[in-house]
Structure formats: structure tokens, C-alpha cells
Amino acid sequence: MEGTEIYGRRACQLVKELACAEPGQLTRFNDDLFNQVIKECTVHYSQFYELTRKMQEEGLDVQSARNADHFGMLIHHLSLLRNKRCLMAYVHKRSEVIQNLSWKVGRVLPEEIENKLSDPEKRYFKSHSSALQSYMRGMDGLDLTVDMVPPKDPYIKVRVLDDIGVTAMGDRDTNLARHSIHFLKRSDAEHYMFQGMMEELLG
Amino acid sequence: MANESGFSMEEFESLMATSDVELLKRAWRNEKSAPEILQFQASLVQRSREQIQLMEGTIEEITRNGFDPLIVSVYQMDMDRAQYMLRSYLRTRLQKIEKDMIHISKTDLWNRLSKEEQSFSKRCYENMKSYLDESVLSKLPSGYQSDLKQSNASEEDDMVPESNLETFVFCKSESSIGAIPLDDSADEIVDLVAGDLYVLRYKSIKPFVENGKIDLV
């Protein structure tokens, strides 16, 4: 750590990055800055121990002595705590976005999102979505990831975005050709909409 | 119409107010607005699920029997709404668990969860713990590695996120409750009149929400 470095500045930058991000969106995991803060913690810790040793060598009681070294130790301790809180806030906030993703995208992450995650985050996404899946299995397969908005009308107007072909819709076959517009039961269409093969026409 | 079936309008309304759909709506609204997780409505959820299944059967049957499509779609809409409410109710609870899993598992809020929710919460915490360990805690010096305490020097768990009970909620009560103290010192009190809408701190009306005297809207 350089002499002019202000303790905790990097951790603060890390948290600011969160604050500036679009809510609900992830930026790439900032490995570089993150590791610098971790390093800063290690330095604080070793300096904390050096001061303890020095006080013990001088025959002072670490708990009760109130000299410059004691307050030095305190500053290192508190700076370390602050850094820890910032680091935890950083990963915890990101974990909330990841939890949200497991509701929205299912079990497999789109590549452009996966690239922004650290390895532990990828593992966390997997384990969290499987926790969610196993809850739904426990509820006799009640799917909680559909029906995210209150239904207005059982039927909706949709435009087909992909050639789906002739499909049984209710009691008759419908030709879901690309660009065709249909009036379908919401529950039938929802499944296609999630896969991006249809879009709802509003208004 | 109500008279023909032998009901007065008031009787009809009070009957509707205690129907499961109405009860579910209430439970759902309370859950949505309360900052903390509320008691799981086990039997209500069970009954609602059975009724939804029954409705599904009815709709299939009347479609097969060639009923007017308009009537079918009214039934369908009714079922979709009930289905949505049930899903949203369960979803809201899971999202609260995601947010406060550690706090919930350490307090008596734990007893408010259903069995399925408890095992979800347990898994959530295991996942979160190993995620935090891997990304941060294992890289910190010893003595600073706890996920609950800031350091070994902390006597209590001082790093557990919990819901903010001081937040304001919209609420309404069906009967007059009388004076409610708004803070611990009881300097300020508010007289809750039946049917009036209030915006109060959740903390001050928490016991009334829990025993069902006040509804959140």
C-alpha cells in the first residue's frame, strides 16, 4: 500500500459501481478491483499483527494500553471491517440479481449474461435455480415462473416470430406461420412467448 | 337475482366475503404489502388448489358439451385469476425467503413457513453460504471469515440482512379497533375507524395484521 493511499477508497469504488449500474442489470464482475480490495484486507491484517507484536514486545497490555499503536491497530481493524462490508455488499447485491434471473430465464443462462458472472456466481445461479425447481416439484409441479403479470383477458393477440408450423391449439389445428397474427388462449401462447417465438400485440 | 335464489343482498355479500377466493385475495394482498413474511395459510392454499383443479375439470367438461364459448371464456378468466393469485402468493413468499433467509431461519419467523418453504430456505442458505465463502470470506484473514459477524470481536450476529419493519404500509380495518400507539412511548395514538384507509408504520400495526384485525392494501 502506498503512503498516500486512502484506506477503503477502492472498496468504495466497488460499491459505487453497483450504485451506478442500471437496477436489475449486471455489469461484468470486477475481478481486478475486487482482488485489490482483498489484498488491502491482507495488508491491514498483517499490519494489525505487527502492531500487536510490537506492543507485546514493549511489555504493554494490548487490551488496555491506549498509545498510538493501540489506535493504529484499531484503524486497521475498522478499515478491514469496512472493506469486508463493502465486499459483502458487492457480492450480495449481485446475488439478488442472480436470484431474479433464476425466476426469469429458467435453468440455462444466456451467454451474454453468463460472461458477466464470476465462477462462484455461475455455480450459485445453478444451485439456486435447482432449489427453486425442487420447491416447485414439491408442490406437485406447480409452475411459479409463469403468470408473472395479472391476466387481463384469457385470449391475447400474438404475432408469430418463427416458423412454428401447424400446431394443435385447443380443438383445432392452427398454422403458426412466421409473421402471422393469431388470437390465442394466453396459456397456450405463453409457452411460445417465453422462448421468443411469439410476441404479444398490445393496444 | 339475489332475491330469486332466496338470499338478500347483504347475505350474499357476507357469504362472498368469506369465500376462499376472497380469503386468498386477502392473504395475497397482506403478503404483498407486509415487509416481513406472514404465517403460511396452509389449509387455504390446499383448498384453493383443489378448487382450481375442480374448475379446470368443469371448463373441460362444458367445452366438450358445446356450451356457449362466451360462458366458457368467463369461466376460464375466473380460473386464470384464481390461479394467478395463488401463484403470486407463493411467489411473493419465496422472494421474501430469498431476501431474508438467514434472518428467517434464526428467528421464530421460521415457524411461519410451510414445510416446502423451510426446505427451500435451507437450500437457499446453503447455496448462499458457499457462494459467499467462495467469493469473499475464504479470501479474508482468519477471524474475519464469518458470514454472520463482521469479525470475531462482534458479540452478536451483526451482519445479517433483515426486513425493515419501520416501513409505511396502507391499511384498513373492518371493525373499529380503537386507539393504537404509533411509537413505543405511546405519545402519539391513532384511532382506527372501520373502513377508513390509513398509512401507518408497519411496526405499529404488526400484531393486528398477524391476528387478522387489520388488512393491508
TrEMBL record, chain A:
Gene3D superfamilies according to UniProt: 1.20.58.1030
Principal localisation: nucleus
Keyword Nucleus (UniProt): yes
CDD domains, per the entry: GINS_A_psf1
GO CC term (a single one): GINS complex
All copies of domain GINS subunit, residue ranges: 54-139
Presence of keyword Nucleus: yes
Domain (DNA replication complex GINS protein PSF1 C-terminal): residue spans on this chain: 152-202
UniProt similarity note: Belongs to the GINS1/PSF1 family.
Name used for this protein in its record: GINS subunit domain-containing protein
Organism of derivation: Spinacia oleracea
Organism lineage: Eukaryota, Viridiplantae, Streptophyta, Embryophyta, Tracheophyta
UniProtKB/TrEMBL annotation, chain B:
Residue span, DNA replication complex GINS protein SLD5 C-terminal domain: 164-217
Keyword Nucleus in annotation: yes
UniProt-listed Pfam families: Sld5, SLD5_C
GINS subunit domain location: 72-133
GO cellular component: GINS complex
Main location: nucleus
Gene Ontology annotations of biological process type: DNA-templated DNA replication; double-strand break repair via break-induced replication
Domain of life: Eukaryota
Keywords: DNA replication, Nucleus
Annotated compartments: Nucleus
Biological function: The GINS complex plays an essential role in the initiation of DNA replication.
Protein family (similarity comment): Belongs to the GINS4/SLD5 family.
Name of this protein: DNA replication complex GINS protein SLD5
The gene coding this protein: LOC110801463
